[in-house]
# Entry
Amino acid sequence: MEVIEIPSAEDRFVLHFETERHEVNAFALASSLVGLANAVKEANSIINPGYSIEVVVERLEDGSFRAGIRTIFKKTRSVFAHEAAKAIIYGIIGTWIYDQTLGEDKEPTIIVNDGSVEIRSGDKIIIVPREIYEAKKAVEKSERFQDSMGQVFNGALKDPDVTGLKITPPGKWPDIPSIPRDRFNGFVERYVGDDANTIYESAVLEISRAILSRGRRKWEFYWRGMKISAPVLDEAFYNDFFAHEITIAPGDMLSVVLKIYRKADPDSGILINSKYEVVEVSGHIPRGIQTSF
# Structure
């Protein structure tokens, strides 16, 4: 019987590409890392309101090909002093991956205990802290999380020499099996479709014209010296605005997660930004003030 135990708290994890060459295509690595970073940020926005998260690559390791990754939490909104960020992102992602894998052939058996949940399928058992399992159920409802995880596997497919992929806590990688390449498409087909040429980027936007009502009407912003139009789709931001916790004026800035749609130029094949959406507002910076609150 193979038993996989998901740790209760971990702010570091390792992305493994299984390959005999001990190297990986740079584009495959970059694409997978962007997808993983976006998945981490989406999970964090759901389970850690009031905290933003930064994802950094600490090191590249020998072996097959491994990237060590660390998450860094930062307060973005008023939260009570005792409300620390929960370092359970790896647990959510690891549980989701193996839950999806076990569920491909037959619906797994779920046993809920007081402090843990057992996911049983065939000769495999995944033991998950109950807090992480409940958080995973909330996060997996997000299409953005699913799309981002699909991008992780779609990126790995771009290197024909990658035979497997896994995400593990540091120091425990021999104990957890890889997802074989022949199962990558199951993630990609289910979660990456017409939206495959979109990326999410943290950005600071200067407001040129605000639309102070909910919906898809486009605001106008300045970003990196150019003018862009984008709807603001963050319901929590509008809740704060209508509760008079935020006052908006031209020249103010918003710290946001920007969804960027891209399409290929027909002549060069280069991906060009075609439209934008603000999917999350993490901070409001009044005009003339250099730090957000």
Observations:
- The chain has a mean pLDDT of 83.
- DSSP finds six helices and 14 strands in the chain.
- Residues 196-285 form a domain with the OB fold (Dihydrolipoamide Acetyltransferase, E2P) fold (CATH 2.40.50).
